[in-house]
Amino acid sequence: MCVQNISDQQLVSSFLSGDSLSIEHLILRHKDKVFGYILSKVKDVDLANDIFQDVFIKVINKLNEGRYNEEGKFIAWVMRISHNMVIDHFRKHARVKMIRSTDEYNIFDIIGGKEDCTEDRMIHKQVVKELKQLVAYLSEEQREVLEMRFYADMTFKEIALECNISINTALGRMRYALINLRKLQEKHDINLMVQ
């Protein structure tokens, strides 16, 4: 029987039964659509290739773990994974740093946009203001580590010594600070991305 006549679900079942060629057929069948989608979002061929490979590694792992149960909707499932991995890429590579203010110590600056027109400057100013408001909701311990790391550019070892805590505690506080900032951003429906 010709591979083109075999459904995605049949190929998935065949792969789960031990036929490793089936996953290759699935990848080849949907390569253009998945790669095209990723490329349209990241605008870089090498990066798109990397994410594409990561997507199918994740697909294979999830299939092997028995975490696929959407019969007949394989490509929709793969496209959701692709979308999530593109989002993860942008989250990982967002750059946040602090700037010093004349009267305050905890103002942030979001790198990513050029302030070459009045509108950009206004948006940038609003983002900084909103981020500052979100940081104020953090516990004192989390805020302190965040400021030392991004504002003073201190290493976690230096932060640990300064605060008289272990490096793991400093890392934990930073991790929870970032998690809480994401939650606060969603709760208050604030977009901190500067285009």
Structural account:
Helix content is 67%, strand content 4%. It has helices at 8-16, 20-42, 45-64, 74-92, 118-136, 140-151, 156-163, 167-187; strands spanning 96-99, 107-110. Helix 2 packs across helix 4. Strands 1-2 form a two-stranded antiparallel ribbon. It folds into two domains: 3-92, RNA polymerase sigma factor, region 2, helix turn helix motif (Rna Polymerase Sigma Factor, Chain: A, Orthogonal Bundle); 96-187, Orthogonal Bundle (Arc Repressor Mutant, subunit A), CATH 1.10.10.10. The radius of gyration is 22 Å and the shape is elongated. Strand 1 and strand 2 (107-110) form a beta hairpin. It has 195 residues and is mainly α. The chain is built from eight helices and two strands.
What key attributes describe this structure?
195 residues; mainly alpha; 67% helix; Arc Repressor Mutant, subunit A; two-stranded antiparallel ribbon; Rna Polymerase Sigma Factor, Chain: A
Treating each run of at least 4 consecutive H or I residues as one helix, how many helices? 8
State the end-to-end CA separation. 50 Å
Helix content: 55-70%
- The computed structural class is mainly alpha
Which architecture of the largest domain does the CATH hierarchy give at level 2?
Orthogonal Bundle
Text of the CATH class of the largest domain: Mainly Alpha
Low-confidence stretches: 95-116
Number of domains: 2
**Could you give a short account of the major beta sheet?**
2 strands, antiparallel
Beta-strand content: under 5%
Which fold name fills CATH's third level, the topology of the largest domain? Arc Repressor Mutant, subunit A
Give the full name of the CATH homologous superfamily of the largest domain: Winged helix-like DNA-binding domain superfamily/Winged helix DNA-binding domain
Order of helices and strands: HHHHEEHHHH
Tell me the radius of gyration.
22 Å
